[in-house]
Amino acid sequence: MRNALAFIKHYWYGRKRGEWMDPVSFERWRERRVVRHIAFVRKHSAFYREWWGTTPDAQWRDFPLIDKAIMMQHFDRLNTVGISEAQAWAVANAAEASRNFKPAIGEVTVGLSSGTSGNRGLFLVGSREQAGWAGAMLGKMLPGSLLSRTSIAFFLRANSNLYESVRSKRLAFVFYDLLDPMTLHLETLGRQQPDLIVAPPSVLRSLAEAVRSGKLNVQPRRIISVAEVLDPLDRAHIELAFGQTVHQIYQCTEGFLGCTCPNGKLHLNEDLVYIEKEFVPGSSRTFVPIVTDFSRTTQPIVRYRLNDLLTESEEPCPCGSPYTAIERIEGRCDDIFYATAMDKSSEQVILYPDFVTRAIIGASAEIRQYRVIQTALDKWTIELDIDESRGTLVKEQVRLAIAMLCERLQCQMPELDFVSYVQTCGTRKLRRVERSYKL
């Protein structure tokens, strides 16, 4: 019964999108939820109890931050159900090896993060939280009523009891394992004829190309991008092929953080998480999120500093939701580029991923796909998918666009090494802008 109530409550919140109360009342509601959550966590998590010391619960914004390294270092004492890191790794690794993602520890689902930052993280989700997640996900992202029949195709590196929890008599859920060949997926997808396709942008791009070439004939009601940053170039190709807006889900080990409204604008899920904004130097809208998830108790996430860069929308969303609207998920803090200042001072110049993206895709309409990797302080490798007969001209246009960017930012032009675009394997997250060298 508790699980059913959690599902219904979060489904209702998801459908209402914050419209059920005015902004002032909503802020008071969130604050009460956070403080109540903090009291529970302090009582049941030995790690947090020591980490916060005697700071009053109402002053939770003064608590010290945590990150993935701290969470994993104190995993055993941080979670509230007594599951050890060794136990969780054993279950997660067995599931990865067998590709059978059903096993759990009691009623607790165990999962792995993708490890794009170089170190993988574990996550634990209790049965009540799982029901709440399913309710929130369906309430926010299902295009029709929960009572209508809907077929969902879900592409990801690994399945989970969490994802399977959306399955019901009216919801047909089919998991597509990215370790399997795409040709096999195209055949299965054609037979399924899904109403929803949920996949990383790199996979959606492949499906879009299959649609345009006639290898795939599907007419989904909604396309949802997950797991990777949705690049403007990929968005344009996918929307053209499917003839509809691409929606997004912003989710990671630390929680279900955001999703798009019916207008296709990404909003933070502020009915589930409280996100503080650590604005980056030189920007009034781009920030690093500090997450407190007041909907999770099994593995509490309190004042957890993510490694992501989000840019807040300049204008409010016409949907009317009070939830913060996000213009773009730019990427990871690890993928901020640095360059030598024009005057060769000791201070390095920051180039945010969005700057690089806009320079590349704005340089030429003939660029089909790209990747930019900073391999040294003043050296970039640029992968381009272009018509070779036009290669010289397009590369010169890209070089000029980057030169103009560097002049605007008053930094020295990097050495550019142009190579052919390499298709990213489906099990590895695509990062269009990536810094591979250590500062």
What does this entry look like structurally?
This protein folds into 2 domains: 2-332, Rossmann fold (3-Layer(aba) Sandwich); 336-435, Alpha-Beta Plaits, CATH 3.30.70. Strand 7 (246-252) and strand 8 (255-260) form a beta hairpin. By secondary structure, it is an alpha/beta fold. It is built from 13 helices and 20 strands. The strands form 4 sheets. Strands 3, 4, 5, 6, 7, 8, 9, 10, 11, 12, 13 and 14 form a 12-stranded mixed sheet that branches. The protein has a 4-stranded mixed sheet with strand order 19-18-17-20, covered by helices on one side. The model has no long low-confidence stretch (mean pLDDT 87). The termini are far apart.
